[in-house]
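Input chain follows. Return structure tokens only.
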Amino acid sequence: MAPYGSRFGWLVTLDQDVPWVAAVLAERARALEGKTMSETEHEITVFYDGACPHCVRDRERYETWAGRAGAPVCWFDITGQDEQLRALGIDPRRALTELHVLDERRRIRSELDAYILLLNRIPWLKPLAWLIGRPWNRPWLARLYHRSVDRRLRQGRRVQ
């Protein structure tokens, strides 16, 4: 795995030689068995906090917005999955404080880059993804995002 990125997000390319990564990819292949290439070519995996009611609502909202025509998304609950997250190169603490997405090319995207990837998959939200990606917006949006997440975790007494 070779991480690279900026202070607004990071990217990790996954190596299939990592046993857990190979197992996850094999499980995804089994789940997609029988589907055509057009049905599977754009699937991504979103790592979300299933113990967080707000995060679960966000997932449900995204699924509603994406609708039936939305590109396929595999949702992975990070609760109690520290070992698997580390095997993917994701710090479990960061997984709680930043959104992480495994893209079609088996790269991990985080924070604003992960949101941009998700928003770009819903046609009517593409302008918002573009706006979030503008260099002049990223610094203050990143601060706002982290402040909101920190508040949510403190209110849920999940971190100090």
